[in-house]
Design a protein that fits this description.
mainly alpha, Hypothetical protein af1432, 2 domains, 14 helices, 66% helix, globular
Amino acid sequence: MTTTKDINEQASLERDCKKLYQRIQSDIDTRHRPLPDFPRIATTVNDLILDPNYRAKDLVDVLEYDKQLSSLLLKVGSSSLYPGKPPCENLDMALRRIGADTTCNLVLIYTLDRLFQTDKATIRQKLKQMWAHNAKVAAIGAWITNFTPEFTNESALLAGLLHDVGALFIMAVLGEKLKTPYHWKLAKNLCEDHSNDIAVQILTHWQIPDDIIETARTKDIWLRDHNHKPDLADLLLIARYHAYLGTDRIQGCPRITDMPAAQKINFQQGEMTPFQGLKIISDYKDEIADITRTLII
């Protein structure tokens, strides 16, 4: 039963959430707290790959000095994303297997984890949880692409890990301010109401492709409908929905049969049904878990 106290608290949360978002947006606009710049090493790797005289050895030379990044690339090259392939013996073998585009994406993923840092242990733990959830969404989306003709696992991985970057930014910004249960409720409301907008600003600032920006703009808009062919945002909605299954987050979500995205995604194996994704995730849960663990740096 909803009490007067509950109603008053909700009104306070909505009022304070609006004020806090306006303050954060003002800080962004005045560059008092600017949006994070695109990671330098990601720019270096991207420029190197676009160089017409690019050689794989040049990329190895740039990346091998960062042991953690090299380890991530080796893990991905040896993961379930490439079934039937033997483990990669060295960085050169891993880079040749995963290709230039995936390498660029993984370097960005690796550096993202270091963009949103805080000294407060509870915030670090929250950021880690959020990153783990995004990794699961990315893994599910990437695995579903094995059964769809429209998408690549590279685009699904990158979109899954970038689409909620606004929430990561919000939590890192609030940092030391989260001291009471009310503050945590306020942070939750702020992420639910405004993280999409901030994610779009960050990804636009980074000149990320429009189809990935759209996945951020439409995050958790379950009944999103459009008169076009299936797009990456549709795929991410399906992946995120399945990542919610078995958690409290599924409460309040529509039935998957009511989601336009579920009716648009075409699977190669048999007739497409809204429950095809459920079967894929059940049948390949070990592979998806392997990819998820790989993405958690």
